[in-house]
């Protein structure tokens, strides 16, 4: 799996990025994502994610993570993918500022919080959601399972 990282904040170390790459690859393997799949993970500040949240979700507030799935099909649309072409899964946008705030609030490491947000965003790209109580139970249980197996528990 190809993962493109972009740290627009310049706040993350090479070690942090290596850990997040390893975590994303771990999730890809556990979720049986095809090897020719690509996604991007972008680290931004609160101002940037607030603007994205306002522009694309009509919510004028800071959030921690936004996922933009490129493989969602609209109703009646037919999925099309050529076998030898990479599958573009989508983009995960994470606010480093908000992750730092939440890590302090939940009393765990920034790496744990960033790991949670990466897994959360990745699962959204794979079709998981939390719009209903049942969906939330399934998605959050899977997040906790993956983070635990990887070793990023609270």
Automatic annotation (TrEMBL):
Cofactor(s) of this protein: Zn(2+)
Compartment(s): Cytoplasm
Family matches, as SUPFAM superfamilies: Metalloproteases ('zincins'), catalytic domain
Gene3D superfamilies tied to this protein: Metalloproteases ('zincins'), catalytic domain
Family label: Belongs to the endoribonuclease YbeY family.
NCBIfam families listed in its UniProt record: rRNA maturation RNase YbeY
Protein name: Endoribonuclease YbeY
């Amino acid at each position: 799996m190809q993962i493109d990282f972009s740290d627009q904040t310049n706040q993350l170390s090479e070690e942090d990025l290596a850990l997040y790459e390893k975590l994303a690859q771990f999730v890809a393997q556990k979720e049986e994502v095809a090897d020719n799949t690509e996604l991007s993970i972008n680290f931004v500040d609160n101002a940037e994610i607030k603007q994205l949240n306002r522009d694309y979700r009509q919510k004028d507030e800071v959030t921690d993570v936004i996922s933009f799935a490129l493989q969602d099909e609209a109703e009646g649309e037919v999925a099309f993918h050529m076998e030898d072409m990479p599958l573009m899964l989508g983009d995960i946008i994470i606010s480093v500022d908000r992750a730092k705030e939440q890590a302090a609030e939940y009393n765990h490491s920034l790496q744990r919080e960033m790991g949670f947000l990466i897994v959360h965003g990745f699962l959204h790209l794979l079709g998981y959601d939390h719009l209903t109580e049942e969906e939330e139970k399934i998605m959050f249980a899977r997040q906790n399972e993956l983070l635990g197996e990887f070793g990023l528990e609270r």
